[in-house]
Amino acid sequence: MSVRKLKPITPGQRFRVVNGFDAITTDKPEKSLLAPKKRSGGRNSQGKMTMRYKGGGHKRRYRIIDFKRDKQGIPATVATIEYDPNRTAFIALLNYQDGEKRYVIAQNGLQVGQNIVSGSDIAPEIGNAMPLSSIPLGTIISCIELRPGQGAVMARSAGSFAQLMARDGKFATVKLPSGEVRMILVNCMATIGAVSNSDHQLIVGGKAGRTRWLGRRPRTRPVAMNPVDHPMGGGEGRSSGGHPRSRKGLPAKGYRTRSKTKASNKYIVERRKK
């Protein structure tokens, strides 16, 4: 894992920091695991813009990722580590012994040629997927299910990881990347190790065009709007805009919007840090 600072031969490259892509082993994806990815450009079926700041972006094809890791007990060999334009993490192509190929989220330290497997009675090694009931306490984990059989939904982005803190009855206590401590059923699956591409946070776009390549249009600051357009608009000169709030008038930056009667509140042991 490394990043490269480009030589400023153009103004856009002066501050540009790009990924070194040291871990990537091929630039050709597995054709059988590709799917088309349609773009809406923020427009509805009538062609009217209903979502601001979306549009453009480079053409992509979706890589079908196995988030469930439900091929239990069948070893697989890591064939390649690849770049995925749809996510911040790298992905790994697995060749299973029965001939099937699948993409999974690559963990930090996963090597080509390494054998990984999913199941309950296996060694807790990097890349292996196991139920929380079989993972030793204190282990760094990622790609965690919230409901059994649902597929991984937590700790999936580049460099993120969680830690298994405790087990009590049918629940395991996990410290999530946000700092939240939460109870999860012990028969939910998780993968050993932190997610790859931990240097993603060091990347600098260098120019506005790179944000456009990612499909994001320029965003208008609320303070620059008129009072009719936003609660923070208007005022003489460079007025700050008062208390930060959303377009609908709800306070932003610190105001808690989570429902106090939400059923899953009882599973949260400790709220995330502000």
Descriptive tags:
mainly beta, OB fold (Dihydrolipoamide Acetyltransferase, E2P), Ribosomal protein L2, domain 3, 2 domains, 7-stranded antiparallel β-sheet, 4-stranded antiparallel β-sheet, 15 strands, 2% helix, 23% strand, globular, rRNA binding, rRNA-binding, Ribosomal_uL2, Translation_prot_SH3-like_sf
Beta-strand percentage? 15-25%
Q: How far from one another are the termini? A: 30 Å
The strand count comes to 15
Order of helices and strands: EEEEEEEEEEEEEEHE
Instruction: Extract low-pLDDT stretches.
Output: none
CATH architecture of the largest domain: Beta Barrel
**Helix share bin:** under 10%
Q: State the name of the first-level CATH class of the largest domain.
A: Mainly Beta
**How many individual helices?**
1
InterPro entries: NA-bd_OB-fold, Rib_uL2_dom2, Ribosomal_uL2, Ribosomal_uL2_bac/org-type, Ribosomal_uL2_C, Ribosomal_uL2_dom3, Ribosomal_uL2_RNA-bd_dom, Translation_prot_SH3-like_sf
Family: Belongs to the universal ribosomal protein uL2 family.
GO molecular function, one term: rRNA binding
Subunit structure: Part of the 50S ribosomal subunit. Forms a bridge to the 30S subunit in the 70S ribosome.
